[in-house]
Amino acid sequence: MLTIQVGEHEFYDGVKEMFFHTKPISVRMEHSLISISKWEAFWKKSYLPSLREPGVHGFAEEQHYLSCMIIGTVPDHIPSILLQNHGTEIQEYIGDPQSATKIYRIGNTPSSSQTVTAELIYYWMIKFGIPFECERWHFNRLLTLIDVCNVKESSGKGGRMSTMDSANYRHQLNKARRNGT
Fold first, then answer.
1. What is the mean pLDDT of residues 154-166?
2. Is 167 within the bounds of a domain?
3. Of 87, 78, 107, which Cα lies nearest the Cα of 20?
């Protein structure tokens, strides 16, 4: 969970044509499957391309995602203030892996062309027996758990790595060790 202290602000309400002053507020936020599913329900498209390609979503979409991340009730102008004044901090939190687990991709595994939505992730949770409480976890941690389940399931099928894949895997491990990651 990310907690951000938003100081006192003055803002203009164009509808009421008045200036307002706000008191300092503590905003709690969570980048979770619940937040993503709320956002996708509103915009009717997958949120996930934004994780791979920054800048895919416009200002209104990003501001709305911040409001989906907020736990509790805050004044309507707070997501805009968060995006303008705390955008870097929030992006770092969203990008944080939240796990010590590293999953090494073997060979030239093609990336799936399948559109990943919240519903597909819920399906994976059901498939792997992941409890629904995990929908509240940091999203990257949940995806790591799903990746681990997928790797463990596929490695149990009796297949062996090819010589080329085995060499590539050892090369990746050695490179990671040298880099200290």
1. 64
2. yes
3. 78
Using a pLDDT cut of 70, give the percent of the chain over it: 83
Q: How confident is the model at residue 160 (pLDDT cuts 50, 70, 90)?
A: low
Reading the block at residue 73, the tokens are: 């009730």
The residue segments making up the domain with residue 56 are: 2-95
CA distance 114 to 96: 24
Q: Residue 44 phi/psi, 5° resolution?
A: 60, 40
- Please answer whether residues 28 and 53 qualify as being in contact, where contact means their C-beta atoms are separated by less than 8 angstroms: no
| Cα(135)–Cα(78) distance, integer angstroms | 24
Q: What is the mean pLDDT of the chain?
A: 84
Secondary structure (H, E, C), 71-101: ECCCCCCHHHHHHHHHHHHHHHHHHCCCCCC
Range 20-29 average pLDDT: 91
In a domain, 102, yes or no: no
C-beta atoms surrounding 66 within 10 Å: 22
